[in-house]
Amino acid sequence: MRRVLSGVAGVSGVAALLVLGLSCGAAANGGAYPAGIPRGVRVDRIVVHKGDHLMEAWSGDTLVRTYEVAVGYGGIGPKRFEGDGRTPEGTYRIDSRHRSRSFQRFIHVSYPNGEDRRRYRRLRREGEVPEGAGIGGDIGIHGYPEGWAAIRRLFDWTAGCIAVDNDEIEELYRAVAPGAVIEILP
Prior knowledge:
By secondary structure, the protein is α/β, with parallel strands linked by helices. The chain has helices spanning 11-24, 114-125, 166-175, and strands at 5-6, 43-49, 54-59, 62-68, 90-100, 104-109, 140-142, 155-156, 162-163, 176-185.
């Protein structure tokens, strides 16, 4: 019910879905610490299930928390090139983090990996990449823009990133270990 739109919708579409989305609530927030990851717990692995709009935070073999997420507006499949609006699929690392004016905090994902580079080169040879489009980069986990609190989970709106609530990105920013593995699944 929540993912009726793909991409940024018109105001009337968003307003109609607002009523539906608010009734769905935040179904995620499972794991060992559904109320939040305690200080001192380090997340060393993140698993994103794009199709289910869920992200899991793991510490060793313990699922510590799940989050409901928004992903890229470009639909299913792996990221192909810069500007396609898709969220990558594959195994990456958390390689940096910083404050973000637009999105609260930004936890950077090491996209592209070798498989992404091979796919991009193949697509370029086949003429599937628009002229001037690179492979892309700047993929990460972040919060949402100011004023988006009520609509942030109603549709996939990012340019390829993974978005969580602003209080959740603060929690993740603190808990995710440098170099943590992030697996992004279809």
